[in-house]
């Protein structure tokens, strides 16, 4: 079975069939209908591309390395990897996945192993948004940092969630509900130095929150810095707030903190959202199990994986032009509406 057979059965030229099956349909504006028809025909006829000959002709192996510091079986890391794999498949690439556990020695070994297998580029991913030290050898070919930026000067591009905009979005949820006072932060703040160690997300979320709150004249009464963002930390921080205040809103820096906040509020006889509104970040699976469901700003793990591969493949052309200027690509974080935010009570408005 040859490419010419697939082209004839699909009613397209051999060139069009070749472009579709090499993953370049979108790049050259071939319609989705034609792409689907060619791929379906190739599948029905049992056509398989000779990737070895393609690689010899193009100088590419049609493979991408994906190195993660978290096991792929975890839900959030799995979503990023799935996004990367789907984007790579659409362009005719395979993905090799390696897990480092955050060990620098393992990271370096994985980078070497990927290069030994002649991958065309590497996606180097972190589970939570942070600065990372780049392993030796990562600069030896095209590479993209996913959910991370480099701790030192580098020519490597980064794909990260737009955490500053996420902070703005969370603050707007509070402001648009009518709250102007009684706001407390759980997890970080009030200053950008009051954050957990090595947390880019905390800094940027805080910047976005403060920008909107200050513009709207919203009072942030207190902020509880939590070294870790786990349910027990949210529980303890909320208990501390309740010792001194009757909050109107708790803005929790992630959904696990919000889970702990719910428990502390319930123990104090306060309901969400009638007594206290709660907002979170990440859209962790725990958010959908809270009652009422938590309003949260989602980390788009799948979209991050897709974008990382798109940026990586775009680097092939940029490198040919000699353009090595690093760019930080920011992916929007959408608000997931739940039932955890309500307008302030009449008594709160009067305060």
Automatic annotation (TrEMBL):
SUPFAM superfamilies: lambda repressor-like DNA-binding domains, Periplasmic binding protein-like I. Keywords: DNA-binding, Repressor, Transcription, Transcription regulation. PROSITE patterns: HTH_LACI_2 (PS50932). The keyword Endoplasmic reticulum does not apply. Residues 1-58 form the HTH lacI-type domain. GO terms for molecular function: DNA binding. It comes from the Bacteria. InterPro entries: HTH_LacI, Lambda_DNA-bd_dom_sf, Peripla_BP/Lac1_sug-bd_dom, Peripla_BP_I. The keyword Transcription applies. This is LacI family DNA-binding transcriptional regulator. It comes from Saccharothrix mutabilis subsp. mutabilis.
């Amino acid at each position: 079975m040859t490419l010419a057979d697939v082209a004839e059965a699909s009613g397209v030229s051999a060139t069009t069939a070749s472009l579709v099956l090499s993953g370049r349909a979108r790049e050259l504006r071939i319609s989705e209908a034609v792409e689907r028809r060619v791929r379906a025909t190739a599948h029905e006829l049992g056509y398989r591309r000779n990737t070895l000959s393609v690689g010899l002709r193009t100088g590419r192996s049609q493979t991408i390395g994906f190195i993660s510091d978290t096991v792929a079986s975890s839900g959030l890391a799995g979503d990023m990897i799935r996004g990367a794999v789907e984007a790579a498949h659409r362009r005719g690439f395979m993905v090799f996945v390696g897990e480092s556990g955050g060990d620098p020695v393992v990271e370096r070994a994985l980078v070497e192993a990927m290069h030994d297998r002649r991958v065309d580029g590497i996606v180097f991913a972190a589970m939570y948004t942070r600065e990372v030290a780049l392993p030796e050898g990562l600069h030896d070919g095209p590479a993209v940092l996913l959910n991370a930026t480099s701790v030192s000067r580098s020519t490597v591009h980064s794909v990260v969630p737009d955490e500053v905009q996420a902070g703005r979005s969370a603050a707007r949820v509070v402001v648009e509900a009518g709250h102007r006072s009684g706001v407390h932060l759980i997890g970080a703040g009030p200053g950008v130095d009051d954050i957990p160690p090595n947390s880019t997300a905390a800094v940027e979320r805080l910047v976005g929150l403060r920008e909107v709150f200050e513009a709207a004249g919203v009072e942030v009464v207190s902020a509880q810095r939590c070294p870790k963002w786990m349910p027990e930390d949210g529980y303890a921080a909320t208990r501390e707030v309740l010792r001194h205040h009757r909050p109107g809103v708790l803005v929790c820096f992630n959904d696990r903190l919000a889970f702990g906040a719910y428990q502390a509020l319930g123990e104090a006889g306060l309901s969400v959202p009638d007594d206290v509104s709660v907002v979170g970040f990440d859209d962790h699976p725990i958010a959908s199990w809270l009652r009422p469901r938590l309003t949260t700003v989602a980390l788009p793990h799948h979209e991050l994986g897709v974008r990382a591969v798109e940026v990586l493949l775009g680097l092939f052309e940029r490198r040919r032009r000699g353009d090595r200027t690093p760019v930080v690509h920011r992916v929007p974080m959408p608000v997931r509406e739940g039932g955890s935010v309500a307008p302030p009570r009449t008594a709160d408005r009067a305060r």
